[in-house]
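Why predict the complex rather than its parts? Because the way molecules touch one another can change local conformation, and only a joint prediction can capture that. The input here totals 733 residues.
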Amino acid sequence: MTQRTRRSTFTLIAFTGVLAVAACAPSSDNDTKGSGDGGDAKATTLTVWSWRVEDEAAYNKIFDAYEAKHEGITVEFKPFKATEYNKVLATGLAGSDGPDVPQVRSYGQVEPTIASKSLVPLDGKVDLSGWDENVVNSAKSKADGKLYSVPLARQTVQMFYNKGLFEKNGISEAPKTWADFTAAGDKLLAGGVTPIAVGAKDDWTLPIVHEVLAAPRFGGAAFQEEVLTGKKSFTDPNFVASIDVFKQLAKYFPKNVTGVAVTDAQTLFSAEKAAMFPGGSFDMAVLKKANPKIDLGVFEVPAPTGSPEDKATTPGWADGNFAVNAKSPNQEAALELVKWMSTKEFGQMVADEVKQISAVPGVTYNDPLLKQMADNYEKSPSPYLLLTDFRYGTPSGTDLMGKGAQQLLLGSKTAEQVAADIDTGVKAWFKPSS
Amino acid sequence: MKTRTGLAFLAPALILFGVFVLYPMLTAFSYAFFEWQGTSRQGFAGLSNFSALVNRAPFKTDLPTALLHNVLFFVGTMLVQNTIGLSVATLLHRRARTRRMLQTLYAMPYLVSPIVIGYLWTLLLSPTFGPVNQLLTKIGLEQFALPWLGDPKTALWVVILVSVWQWVGFPVLLYGAALGGVPEELTEAARVDGASHGQVFRKITFPLLIPAIGTVSVLTFIFAMEAFALPFAFGGSTGNPAGSTDFVSLLFYRSAFDSGAVDAIGTSSALATVLFLIIFGGAMAATKVLRRHERRMAS
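Output of the joint prediction:
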């Protein structure tokens, strides 16, 4: 009996020991895999992490082209679920199992990663001269002004519209003036069609809707400059008036708009129950797929009456940037790859394979709609201000605008109050530069 | 020898508990006392991360509302879920035939992920395509065809009621078991003495159920304070619309994982610590009251 007890005690202790060892094992295991070929200069495997699971095939094609030209380099593309990517990447970069080339967030959202000293500064190593300034800013740190990544894509926001429904309701072309725009809304309303499909239940869409409908009303790029230097604040009358545009156009939105999810809004549009959808270039694929029969068009919403400058704009920003992990054992090869990502060759492949507007200037587009969005941005760009400059702390400008616009649409706050909330909210962390 | 054998048997569980529960908890606790630059830890911060929860936006404005929603969630769940649960359990207790089947049926939604439940109910309640409002309109109740999830006045209660709908099987099971433990001699004796059904329930069954009610209350409190999945499925991480379904764990989620603040780890760890203390303190206090009551009943 005692012997048996002793034996089982021993077995137990041994088992516990195995458990403890097993708990430590995975990381060391991955270590050897990660830097497996590091010693041999001829054969290097670069790992690229991304949150774009849907683009895996496209990236494999792109990196095959890179491998063909760079002997001994294998690029391994590893996508993770978008909603978990931030956590996965933070853990990967903090430990030793991170990727050589991580896809990183842009503007303020990459700042914590940069502050962790996880990324290699790329100044003097990558040449982004001639690129759009707003795009380059997505890759820079506001804290030290250095460049930390190469932007992948430009996202633009604009109005999508159903050309067939427009014609059916006696609107022959995309509106050119604010009066045209509201007249079109009235005609569609009279025809029993919801003019603008907005999904205000999802607060994150509202800052985008605000940019699409009213960027010229607050002054776009000019206002960006003034608010960043502290000459103006969000309580500026023009900014307040831009928020009020929501109220003016609310009659064109679906009924009970704060209960309508963005997927519902897209369904309204693709079921041809709504004629316009304010959205991003990233929505194009979804809209086309949902109802391929719709003759889809895009236009820049004309400047609302009273705008500082009577000129329509296409607001945009950059995202999907690629960087070099400071702990990568293959830094030189990783840098080479990231440098290639700033070339027109790579940009063209992004346009053709990933079907996004490349961040690289001078790329051409086969898709006419994509081309129109890219051209519009080229011609009359403006920053998606609350994203490009006001996501560097909590609460973010976009969160504040989302919540505020909902309150405005619900009637619980006025445009002045919403603007004041945004102003006090961002002042929790934002300091003007002058 | 005996204690050593005992320890050896405890060791696997203790080690697992230590590595996967205690250690992460203590580190998270320690994170709250440091300054952070992204994921790299800086100097000791004292209580500044905690004072940020009271003094700095968004915590200054969002934390009190979120906490209030947690409390409303607890009160609403206590009132509705436990009342319904107790009534159903009492009715089922008297019924021999289909009790098992009905218990299983009541517990069914509980087997589905809250994320899926939230998504399904969002579709059902959608003001544009949702069948709930279409049905209400068809039967002449247009005035009740509201934008349920789009109005701050109703959204929180929708979250609470759907949660009740999902979890009501849980108190049914617990109360069912507790009712089975009430000695029949007592109820029979009372009945012989001429007590009515209601009197038997009020004077005998209910007092004997108090320990079970206490347990359910403590579990409901913990559940309500850490509510995350269902509110997330309904209103996203920002508590749409206009923050009306915001909860403390959502505030934690967005300040920890969705923010561009470089000190996010510090403030969000402080928030997690505060939430833990609220839950731990509340549960401890409730258990203490419960124990005292049990002791009084025993004597």
